[in-house]
Amino acid sequence: MKSDNVIQQKSFAFAIRIVNAYKYLIKEKQEFVLSKQMLRSGTSIGANVEESIGGQSKADFISKLSIAYKEARETLYWIKLLAATDYLNKEMSDSLLSDAEEICKIIGKIQISSKQT
Prior knowledge:
mainly alpha; de novo design (two linked rop proteins)
C-alpha cells in the first residue's frame, strides 16, 4: 500500500472499522442481517479502490472508482439504519458516518479531476 495514496489508506482503515463494528453487532447486539449488508458494502469500498489503482485504462479506473463511491453511499445507508434502530449508539454511528462521508468526498473529487484530464 502506497503511503501517499490517501483514499487507499482511508478506505482500508475504514474497512477495519467496519469489520470491528460488524463483530460488535453480531456478538453484543445479536444482529446478523443489517450488519452483514454494512460489512459487505463497507469493505467493498477499499476493494474497488484497489481495483481502480490496477485499472487497465482511464475508463476502467473511473468505473472502479464509481463503484467504490456507490458502495460508500450504500454503507452510509446501512449505518444510518443501524443507528435509527438502536443497534449502533450515536457516538459509533456519528464516527462511522463521518469517515464514510469523507471517503465519498475524496472519491468524488478524484472522479471529477480524472474526468477533466
